[in-house]
């Protein structure tokens, strides 16, 4: 594992612990399908939450939030459709956890599949 991959994995662990401490149940990590990936799949009461985690060490190139482009959102949505097809359709939302300069920010309902 490269240093970048190790930092990314640590960021995802930190995000999972943060969300669990706020009552979300982590159902899965790194769900991959051809053409997309979801970092964390959680349950928040009756809602399935697909979480994109972004770790950035600085604000260059717009920072963590700017790195979640429309193309990235489309890949997450594609993977979410596959997850729902395998596990049963349910109400869902797309959240982001941004980790930048050591700070963590949770954005609920960050984007939509519509």
Report on the architecture of this protein.
The chain has a single domain (3-111), classed as Trna Endonuclease, Chain: A, domain 1 (3-Layer(aba) Sandwich). The mean pLDDT is 91. It has a 5-stranded mixed β-sheet. The protein is globular and about 40 Å long. Strand 2 (36-44) and strand 3 form a beta hairpin. It has 3 helices and 5 strands; from the N terminus they run αβββααββ. The chain has helices at 3-21, 63-66, 70-87, and strands at 25-33, 36-44, 47-56, 92-100, 103-111. By secondary structure, the protein is α+β, with helices and mostly antiparallel strands. 36% of the residues lie in helices and 40% in strands.
> Helical region count?
3
CATH topology: Trna Endonuclease, Chain: A, domain 1
| Strand ordering within the main sheet | 1-2-3-4-5
CATH class: Alpha Beta
How many domains? 1
Low-confidence stretches: none
CATH structural architecture: 3-Layer(aba) Sandwich
* Gyration radius, in Å: 13 Å
Helix content: 25-40%
Order of helices and strands: HEEEHHEE
Task: Give the percentage of residues in beta strands.
Answer: 35-45%
Describe the main β-sheet briefly: 5 strands, mixed
Descriptive key words:
114 residues; alpha+beta; Trna Endonuclease, Chain: A, domain 1; five-stranded mixed β-sheet; 5 strands; globular
